[in-house]
Amino acid sequence: MKTLYYKIDIALVQLFLLVIASACSNFTDVELPSSQLTAGAVFEDRVTANAAVTDIYSKIRDKGLLTGYPTGLSNQLGLYSDELQYYGISGTGQANFYNNSLTDTDAEISELWNSSYNQIYAANAVVEGLAKSATVPLADRHQLTGEALFVRALIHFYLFNTFGPVPYITSTDYKKNSTVARMPEQDLYSSIRKDLEQAAELLPRNYVSADRSRPNRAAAQALLSRLYLYNQLWDQASNTASAVINQTDLYIWPSTLDLLFEKESRSTIWQLTPSLAGANTYEGNNFIFLQGPPPSAALSNNLLNAFTTGDRRKTQWIKSVTNGTSVWYHSYKYKRKASTAVSAEYSVILRIAEQYLIRSEARAHQGDLIGAKEDLNKTRNLAGLGNTTAGTAQEIIEAVLLERRLELFTELGHRFFDLKRTGKLDQVLSISKPQWKTSARVLPLPESELQLNPNLNPQNESY
Q1: Could you tell me whether strands 318-322 and 84-86 are parallel, antiparallel, or unpaired per DSSP bridges?
Q2: Deepest of 301, 353, 391, 422, by most Cβ within 10 A of its Cβ?
Q3: Distance between CA 361 and CA 234 in Å, rounded?
Q4: pLDDT of residue 362
Q5: What does the alpha-carbon distance between residue 285 and residue 255 come to, in Å, rounded to a whole number?
Q6: Could you report the per-residue pLDDT of 386-441, keeping only the tens digit for each?
Q7: Phi, psi dihedrals of residue 329, rounded to the nearest 5°
Q8: Counting Cβ atoms within 10 Å, is residue 66 exposed (0-12), middle (13-18) or buried (19+)?
C-alpha cells in the first residue's frame, strides 16, 4: 500500500490489507486466518487503523460498482439504460450491458458482486477491530467506525438497487457468511438506514481531509436523504436534504458549471482521490474520446435530444468529436483525460445539486409547490434556463425527473435508478431499446455464488 500522508508501520498494514484483499474473491468463502493477532494489532494504533480505512476508498475507486472505469455503474448502467450508445466490438461485457443480454456467467457480473462484498468485508473488519481496540483514541474510533458504517451502507445500497434483494453482511465470520440468504426489501432499507443513522452520529461535522475525500456527517445524511426518497418517505427525505443544504459554511452553490467538477468545488459533498499524484479521474479517461468513431461508447441521441435550447449543460458538459463526416458526443463533466502536473479533478460521488433535487421532488409530493419550484430552479438557473413553468404537483415531479436526467447523466446510474423507482423502466426503455424486457430491472446474481451458497436462490427472474 502506498501512503502519502502518514508514517506508518508499512509491513503491519500491508499484511492486514493483504489478508482482507486476498483471503478470497467473495464473501461466502472468507475466513480470518491464523494471523488474527497481527490483523488486530492494526486497530491498536491510530495511524495504522486510519490507513486500513483509506485503503477501502482505494478499493472503491479502482473496482466494483462505483469505479470510474468502464466496468463501473456510471458506464455500464449508462449503456444498460438510454444514456449511452455502444460502438465497441460485440461479445464484450459492455456490449452485453448495452444489449440487455447479461447472463449469470458474465465475468462483469461476478466482478461487481465480488468487489462489492470485498469492500463490505473490509469495512466490517474495521468496525470489529475498532470495537475491540483499547488504545485508539475515542474520537478517532468514532470517526473511523462511522466511515466504515457509511461505506457498508453505501455499497449495500447500490447492490440492492442493482441486483435486487441481496444479503446484508455485517460480520467477518466466514462460516456465517457462507450460508446467508437474501434479505427482504424492507429489511434491507432498514439495515441501510440504521448504518447511515449511526454513521451520521459518529462522523464529525467538519471534514478531516481538506480535499473532502473522507466522508463527514453530511455525506451520511446525503445518502440517507436519497434512501428516504427511494422509499417514498417524503418528509424525511426533505428534512434530511435540508440538513445538508443548510450547512452553508461547508457547501456553496456554484456560480458556474465549468468549475463544478474541479477538486476544490465547494458543492462537492464527498469525492475519491486519484490513484497517483498528478492523475485525474477514471471517468474522464473513460468517457472522453479524441477521434471518431468512438472506441467504445458515446452519448445517445436520446439524451442529447432531451436538452432544450440554451441549456449550458449541453455546451459545457458535453463535447463533440467529428471525423469530417459524422459527429459523436461524449460526457465532458470531467475535462481531463490524462494526468496533469497537479491533480485537478477527483471522482465526485455525492454533490449538493442532488440534494436540492431530492428536496424538490419530496416537497412536491408533500404539496409544498412553492418550495419545490424554488429548489428545482436552482439547477435550472445555473444551467442558464428560466424558472420552471410547471404548475401542479405532478407537473413539478415530472420536471424534477427530467432535471435529474439532465443534471446527473453518466453519474453512477442515476438515470436507471430513477426510471426503476418511479415505475417507468418498461415505458421508457421498451421504446429506446427494442430488446428490453421487464425482468432486466435487476441484474442476475453470479452463478458461481449460487453454487457456493444455495441459500441465495432463487435466481432473479429470467436468468
Answers
A1: unpaired
A2: 353
A3: 8
A4: 98
A5: 26
A6: 999 999 999 999 999 999 999 999 999 999 999 999 999 999 999 999 899 999 99
A7: -130, 145
A8: buried
The one-letter code for the residue type at 241 is: A
- Give the chain's radius of gyration (CA, Å): 22
What does the alpha-carbon distance between residue 383 and residue 405 come to, in Å, rounded to a whole number?
13
pLDDT tens, residue by residue, 56-73: 999 999 999 999 999 999
List beta partners, residue 271. Answer: 348
**Residue 297 backbone dihedrals phi, psi, to 5 degrees:** -135, 155
Spatial distance between the Cα atoms of 444 and 103, rounded to a whole number of angstroms? 6
- Report, as an integer, the average pLDDT of 221-229: 98
d(CA 397, CA 232): 13
SS3 category, 320: strand
Mean pLDDT of the chain: 93
- Cβ neighbourhood burial of 396 (10 Å; 0-12, 13-18, 19+): buried
Report helix, strand or coil for 408.
coil
What is the Cα–Cα distance from 15 to 10, expressed in whole angstroms?
8
Around 170, how many Cα atoms within 13 Å sit in the side-chain half-sphere?
Answer: 11
Half-sphere exposure of 197 (CA within 13 A, CB side): 9
Q: What's the one-letter identity of residue 204? A: P
Confidence of residue 177 (pLDDT cuts 50, 70, 90): very high
Closest Cα partner for 288 from 335, 325, 328, 323? 335
Cβ–Cβ under 8 Å, residues 300 and 83: yes
Position 27 scores a pLDDT of 52
Q: What is the DSSP string of 153-176?
A: HHHHHHHHHHHSS--------HHH
- Residue 269 phi/psi, 5° resolution? -95, -40
Q: Which three cell numbers stand for residue 178?
A: 457462507
Select from 285, 293, 231 the least CA-distant residue to 74: 285
Q: pLDDT digits over 319-354, tens only?
A: 999 999 999 999 999 999 999 999 999 999 999 999
Q: How far is CA 106 from CA 75, 99, 113, 188, in A?
A: 16, 13, 11, 26
Q: What is the pLDDT of residue 74?
A: 98
Output the CA angle 304-272-14, nearest 5 degrees. 145
Enumerate the β-bridge partners of residue 1.
none
Percent of the chain with pLDDT over 70: 91
Prediction pTM value:
0.94
pLDDT of residue 41: 81
Q: How far apart are CA 375 and CA 378, in angstroms?
A: 5
Q: Residue 222 corresponds to which cell in the numbers above?
A: 446525503
Its sign, for the CA torsion 430, 433, 434, 438, is negative
Rounded (5°) CA angle 19-20-22? 65
State whether residue 74 is helix, strand or coil.
Answer: helix
d(CA 43, CA 387): 53
